[in-house]
Amino acid sequence: MQFNIQDQDNKEKALVDNDWQIILQKSNRINTYYENNQTEEEFLEQKKDLIEQFPPNKSLRKEMDFQDDLIISQSKIRNDVQVTNQNQETKANKNDEKMKENEETQDDDDEEDEEKFLSQDQEEKRIKQKKDMRWKKFNFSFNVSCFLKLFFIDFLKLLLNSWKNIKAFGLLELKHVPLLRPNEKVENNYINFQKHMDRVFLKREKEGKKLTSLDMLFVILRTFYLPIIQMITSTLLYYSLKIFFSNQINFLITAVIDNESQNVIYGWAIVMAFTQFFYISLVHHSVRFFTAFFVQFRATFNRALFLKVSSLSAFSIKEANVGKLVNLVSNDLNLLEMKSYSIINLLTLPAPIIAVALILYYRFDGYAVIGLAVMIGYIPFQLLLAKISSGFFKDKAALVDNRVKFTNEIVEGIRLIKMYAWEEAFVHLVTTFRKSELRKIFYIQFIYLLEHSFSFVSGLFASFIVFFVIYKYGEPGSLNVANMYSTLDLLSYVKQQVVSTAGYGIVGLLELKVILERMITVVTIKSSQMTRIEKINDHNGKTLENGEIEMKNFTAYWKDQQPVLNCLNLDIKKGECIGIVGKVGSGKSSFLSCILKEIPNYSGYFNFKGKIAYVEQEPYIFNKTVRENILFGTKYEEKFYNQVIEACCLIDDIKQFDYGDQTQIGERGINISGGQKARISLARAIYSKADIYLLDDPLSAVDSKVAKLLNDNAIQGLLKRKTVLLVTHQIPYTRNTDRIIIMSDGFIQNIGSYNDLQEPLRVLGHQMHIDDSQNQSRASQSFKQPIQQNQEKEEEEEIDDDKEVNRQQEQNAIDQIEEKLQQQNKKEVKQIEDIKEKKEKKDKLYTKEEDEKIVVGFQTYLNYFLNSKIWFLAPLMFALFATCELVFIFYSKTIGKYGNQGADQFYYISLLGYLSLIYFINLVLKYFLLTIIANRSSFYIHNKMVQSIIRAKVLYFDRTPSGRILNRFSSDLGIIDQDLVRTSMDTIEIIFSFFILMGTIISINPYFSIIAVAEILVLGLYLGISKKVLVQSKQIDLRYRSPVYTFFNQTTQGVLPIRIYEKQQIFCDNFDFLLNNSLRSSYTYWFNSRAFGYYVNMVATFSAIIGIFMLLSIDQNPSTLGQTIIYFLNISDNIQWGLRQMIQTDVAMSSAQRAMNMTLIDQEPALRTNYDRKVLKKAENQQTNKQKEQYSFPNQGNVEFQNVKMKYRQDLAYVLNGLTFSLKAGQKVGCIGRTGAGKSSIIQALFRMTEIESNLDYAKYHFEDEEQRLSQEMFIKIDGHNIKDLGLHTLRGGISIIPQVPFIFSGTIRRNLDPLNEFTDKMITDILQDINLLEKVNSLAKGIHTDMTNASEIFSTGQKQLICLGRAILRQSKLIVLDEATANCDMYTDELIQRKIREKFTESTVITVAHRLNTIADYDKIIVMDRGAVIESGTPYELLCKQNGIFKQMVDHTGKKNAKLILKIAQQAYNQSIQNI
Q1: Which residue has the higher pLDDT, 492 or 796?
Q2: Residue 1377: left if φ>0, alpha if ψ -120 to 50, beta else—which one?
Q3: Separation between Cα atoms, residue 440 and residue 430, nearest integer Å
Q4: What pLDDT digit, counting tens, does each position of 272-298 carry?
Q5: 0.70 cut: is pTM over it?
Q6: How many Cα atoms are found within 13 Å in the side-chain-facing hemisphere of 124?
């Protein structure tokens, strides 16, 4: 059969054509269906089924695909149009809801942004802020017209809005608070304030005079002149209306006496009503203008103070006293807030005095003015009292500064205070200051109560004087009931507005003078610029490039004339890497301080050019995330960021953190290790892309392996072409530097390349290791001598054998390693990013302040009185408050009886005098009792706070910002000490006054009970709405002041890195944000308070007017009418003040509640236990100190860790995980491992800073076998004593620690060595001799009594570490702990510390956490840790003999020559130990 190819092709073609037609038909149907209602997925699926039914054809498929694409695209366009139309219809409906939702959440976003302010794009943030127009819709004016503002409708809207939010959400939050207009923000007012300040400064500089408090006052007045003028104007107007109202009382009663027509009587009553309403409005508007002034002033001055502090050097801030700065920001301005209104009103006092004098002269001729003269004559007495009070206030302020400073030291050094068992010493110091402070406060309060009593009685006494003089020497006929009641009201007003205001204002003015002088001492501190005290005439310097430094005959000084650097001549080129070495105290760190412009004075020539980065010896870490601490306000660049954290060996650490680089770090880096702090600080420096890098021994805080990687990848890697000044105590790391500077006693001893300085470096190395044969024991001497000889020999080999390894091969090997590391780290970086994506929840280390429940109730007041220990005097005090009001009522009734027909007028006039005297005595007694109770309560509350804070678990300090704690000890205590007492006085007084006066009015006419009930109901309803609003408004005000104090305190501590990295503007912007938040919350409180006061006053006045009209319609008896008007006016004037003071007392009591809450912090276990007393207490005949119980612990120094597990917080992973090891008495043990391995956690567990987990009960009941049970138990034992059975002081007092960062506190050198005063001066001197510091101390003017407040000025870091060594030697403990103690020391100090430990603690167990492996090479035992467990242990020599041992690998990373040296030291130590056996 023949096969015809042509026919076959034709058939296939026909078939295909037929198929094509069928496909097109079906396809068109599918296309039509798709166009109508089919989805794209369904359409393509049907097309696919259709194509599969027919044989493949490329052209057919292509055509179909083209048609499909065309149809799909056309359909998409139609669908998009439809969707767009639908979206446009729904978008308009949803837009308002979205806008509202956005506005509600914007504040939360803003707060979150500011929490991350160090990692944000600053330019983007500023643009965002400029575009933010939400304030137009939601501001404090509520878009209310000026007319309605006259009636405080805008404030009422704010109060109701706050009430609705509290009702809806249970809490008033910042997002519920209106926004500030641009002209209300602190930045705007600061510009004017600073402009006036600059003018005054220039003027005084030209005149050669110092800035005075009067200058500061004028600056304030010029800056805020508008609200002050508005306030003064409204004050003068309401003075006029009040005086007019007093005359109207006279006219009304006279009209009743003269039986005028009812139209005249009611006409005067109507005029009185309108006058009173306008008077009330003006009074409250006056306070409104004052609020606008003072709130802005406080924020503006805080900003000025912040900018001043951020421009200072760290040295200047320490000189200024941090406690003083915090006290200025928190306490002083709060005190001023309460008195500023009276201070400004002093300017208006002449006007009402003149007006009242004229009216009295018109009524009673010249005799009446005598009464007014008596009142005015009281003002000089007030001035005397105010001057005395001002002196006490100044002394009190200084005591508060010192108390807050020492409290700050407790908070910052709490861990070491606990470890040293020094709690009692610090508590005694703080409470001593507190006793003196409260004594001054009592004097201030006593003067206040005297002044207050005189002010209160002055109205009654002056009225008596007027009536008596007129009766005796004037025209008795003019003393009618109308004139007498009108005069009483007029003089009572003078008492209230003139005498009281003058007294309060004068005291405030003198206190203002003190505060302004304190402000001046801060704002006039010299800036951080170094001062040249002597210039080189023939040297003007050269033009420098970025990265260059030049010094010519440069000499630097601290405070005295003794130079710390002497005659330096140096020229550092761009891109040079300079190594700086020398012994402790040689001037290495001081040299860097000069470039940082930290040293205040210098002579000669000094210049540099370029941006600086600095890695501190004691790195400052901000309480932000890891990433924020590295970025530090610089824009985030992912690629470079990853390179930096890789070069700084942070990859593994970030992986270990629960939230990656979003993990929040506590203040001063409390929740990370010293090595991690150093590497984060180094990463921050590298990321800044500076020109000059100052590295102050960054490699000492890390182990040898990490140090090598940091040197290779960071210093010699990323910083290769940068100017680097590397201060180090480890000479081998200077090998790759371009030049080396050897310093000695402030001089440059040698300078040159590594090859040029081989001999000086060998000598320096020898000096750093040489032993003092006169002080060294024979055993140590015989053991160390061959080691030194070997070391010198190895150093010679290391220097001479330069050709041992081919450098090109080394470089190739390094490149290969780096390539592998990069590949590995890229994977690890990706893992970190994955962790961050998975863990969207942000790490919140700190608790929010609103988390603390502040509920002020009856129990709060009861606890406050009970804390005084003399609560039984309270009933007597309340009785005196009641009798005072009764005396006042009796006084007014006596005036009424004077007008009765046939009355003995002289008797009643005399009775008024006796009643005035009784009233005064009553006032003094009740105020005195309240002051005594309050003062005692403040004393005991503070003592409990200090005891609680110093005995609190360290977790509390990890989770609570120091600014919040200091706020309790400064602002809250300030409120408790003074504000609470004064608001309580007013509250108790006005409550008794209201109910007694209202009862008296009802007794005059029972119908008044209707008004009383109605008034109480309305006021009760309004109070019910307003009380929560006002209390929460004040709480939100205080809550948002706290971040201001915290941030201010944080900035003062971290001012050096802020200034160096030029981040002042970023920190200033964030401070502005916090200040504006504080402004908003302050406005909310003051405006809500004003709305409450105004409408309460209006209700009370309305009730009083109705009562007067009722009385006129029922009984027009002049005497009754006069009494009733006086009582009603008294209630009307005081009720709003009383209710506001009652709420203010509640708010002030919330400060007391916060303080008392601090006494309820979770406490550590007992300092002494029954176990101590039964088992460890020394016998009576063994007690060397009869005043203090002594305990024999530990006797030997055996240590046993069994299956120890520990975590710092319950939500974190274990830092010790089944740790087991044991140490014999007298052993020297080195604990090593990479950062985060758990080395320092051993110390935390040993000192019980964090309690380990326990399963004793579980093991006891679940394991019958003794051996099995013991193996499962978790414990730490010292000399067989489970440390959980011991008191903390017994435990910690028996262990000595030398920490990584030396803890030096304010006080003398002697006190730093012996804060408990247990040793004699002779013993202190001997210790200083032992640690080679006696010569240095004797050179100081006051010797061992030299103050160490600014310790860096006296001692270098290494010398401060020797002070810590001295403490350990004094205690002579059987167990010594060194927490990387020599990390920041040179080799000489390291050797000295190690030698002294060998000499002084031959029979003590020594646990050393170390990175320098040379220092522990001759130890008895090495423990290698990883992830909280022991992975390797044994003698150094045994571990070095393991081929793949971890310790061996770490030693190998220190370099070939050094590894050989360590091996020889270990071998000799091992051989000697064998011989001793």
Answers
A1: 492
A2: beta
A3: 16
A4: 889 989 999 999 999 999 988 888 888
A5: no
A6: 9
Distance of CA 788 to the CA centre of its chain: 50
Pair of tokens at residue 892: 């007014």
Question: For 393, phi and psi rounded to 5 degrees?
Answer: -65, -40
For residue 1272, give Cα distances in angstroms to 557, 1205, 1258, 1289, 1432: 61, 12, 9, 28, 21
Query: Phi, psi at residue 868, to the nearest 5°?
Result: -75, -20
Q: Cβ–Cβ contacts within 10 Å for residue 18, how many? A: 11
In the predicted model, what is the mean pLDDT of residues 77-87?
A: 52
Contact 615, 685 (CB under 8 A): yes
User: Which CATH number is associated with domain 531-800+813-838?
Assistant: 3.40.50.300
Nearest-angstrom CA–CA distance, 246 and 483: 10
Question: Pairing relation of β-strands 1199-1206 and 1281-1282?
Answer: unpaired
156 residue type, one letter: L
pLDDT at 55 over 70: no
Report the percentage of the chain scoring pLDDT > 90. Answer: 16
Residue reference for tokens 């008895």: 1420
Q: Which residues pair with 605 in a beta bridge?
A: 552
Residues 6+ away with beta carbon under 8 Å from 1029: 159, 162, 163, 166, 172, 1088, 1092
Residue 420: both structure tokens together: 């040293």
983's CB contacts (< 8 A; 6+ apart) are: 1141, 1144, 1145, 1148
Cα–Cα distance, 1120 to 1111 (Å, whole number): 9
**For residue 1194, is the peptide bond before it cis, meaning its omega torsion is within 30 degrees of 0?**
yes
Please determine, for residue 1385, whether its predicted confidence score (pLDDT) is greater than 60.
Answer: yes
> Crossing angle of helices 500-523/213-223, nearest 10°?
100
Q: What is the mean pLDDT of residues 796-818?
A: 39
Bridge-based pairing state of the strands 692-696 and 723-727: parallel
- Where are the domains positioned within the chain? 5-86, 151-180+224-527+867-1158, 531-800+813-838
pLDDT of residue 9: 43
With a CB cutoff of 8 Å and minimum separation 6, the contacts of 664 are 623, 624, 625, 842, 843, 844, 845, 846
**Is-contact 1270 1220, C-beta < 8 A?**
no
Mean pLDDT, all residues of the chain: 79
Find the angle CA(584)-CA(585)-CA(588) to the nearest 5 degrees: 90
Return the H-helix or E-strand segment holding 474: none
785 confidence band (pLDDT: 50, 70, 90): very low
Contacts within 8 Å (CB) and 24+ apart, 909-912: 909/464, 909/467, 909/468, 909/471, 912/460, 912/463, 912/464, 912/467, 912/468
Residue 1297 bridge partners (DSSP)? 1377
Determine the CATH number of domain 151-180+224-527+867-1158.
Answer: 1.20.1560.10
The predicted model gives 1230-1257 an average pLDDT of 83
